[in-house]
Amino acid sequence: MKIYPFLHQCAERVFIILGGALKLSLIQLQNVSKRFAEVTALDRVSVTVQTGEMLGIIGHSGAGKSTLLRMINGLEQPTEGEVFIKGKDLAHLSKIELRKLRSKIGMIFQHFNLLTSRTVYENIAFPLQIVGKKNAEIKMRVEELLERVGLTEKRNSYPSQLSGGQKQRVGIARALANHPEIVLCDEATSALDPATTDSILHLIQEINRETGITFVFITHEMSVVKKVCSQVAVLEAGQIVETGDVAEVFAHPGHPVTKSFLGLTSSEGGNRIVS
Ligand SMILES: Nc1ncnc2c1ncn2[C@@H]1O[C@H](COP(=O)(O)OP(=O)(O)OP(=O)(O)O)[C@@H](O)[C@H]1O
């Protein structure tokens, strides 16, 4: 193993562990609004995510979830308000700084977004090639990731030869390739059956525990939030209507939208099991 990548990985790991221990805010949105012509997609949204947390952002279609995710990875700029990642205001970063920061944010997609003409190995190698890693380093990292997501045997298969769960495992490995500090999951399990969803969520949970990587999930399924998230934010018509610790919100939902996601009527309390 070359010494530089090893030291680099160690430094990143130390940052993640220290960040978690010191409860540093990794992601902070302050009064963020986003307007597209007549549409207000986000309306004075404030969210704080600590290092190592698993945040679930739940909302109906059109609530603003994707827009919120795109704010976090700098693909969308707020009309008002600020987005800070590791204390840095994204609006004040140069293009190079923004690109560097974005290379530390992985993405997992509902429909996997794999390159169909490339093998499993090549899909995972792709983000490493983009940042100019050397072949030996790429090989070592891809082998490690193939093993971690349980796809070593499928290294030479093409996406069309994989099940949905296997495709998402490739998506996860690809998202982890550049040692991200944040992984954004855009409806990552919505195209999967319940058993496969469970295995993917279990894998993500294990990766969070092993690495301390912060995960942000957007979903319209409360069961996903319940299974993996520590914090939840409920988004409705561009506003966060309820937020907090998952156990607390599940036990005592306050807002009618939260209650409806939990399968409760507005007059009912919490404690119903969402499977
Ligand atoms: N680029 C855009 N131009 C115009 N309107 C947009 C744009 N992006 C999003 N919107 C609008 O902003 C609102 C929020 O959209 P967004 O995609 O963030 O919601 P969502 O909660 O992710 O929905 P879904 O679950 O259906 O993907 C919607 O009314 C949408 O039509």
UniProtKB/TrEMBL annotation:
Matching Pfam families: ABC_tran
Gene Ontology MF terms: ATP binding; ATP hydrolysis activity
Gene3D superfamilies from the UniProt entry: P-loop containing nucleotide triphosphate hydrolases
Gene Ontology biological-process entries: amino acid transport
Top-level division of the source organism's lineage: Bacteria
GO cellular component: plasma membrane
The UniProt record lists the keyword Chaperone: no
Keywords assigned: Amino-acid transport, ATP-binding, Cell membrane, Membrane, Nucleotide-binding, Translocase, Transport
Transmembrane segments: none
InterPro entries per record: AAA+_ATPase, ABC_transporter-like_ATP-bd, ABC_transporter-like_CS, MetN_ABC, MetN_ABC_transporter-like, P-loop_NTPase
ABC transporter domain mapped to chain residues: 27-262
Presence of the UniProt keyword Translocase in the record: yes
Similarity annotation: Belongs to the ABC transporter superfamily.
Protein name: ATP-binding cassette domain-containing protein
Organism: Shimazuella alba
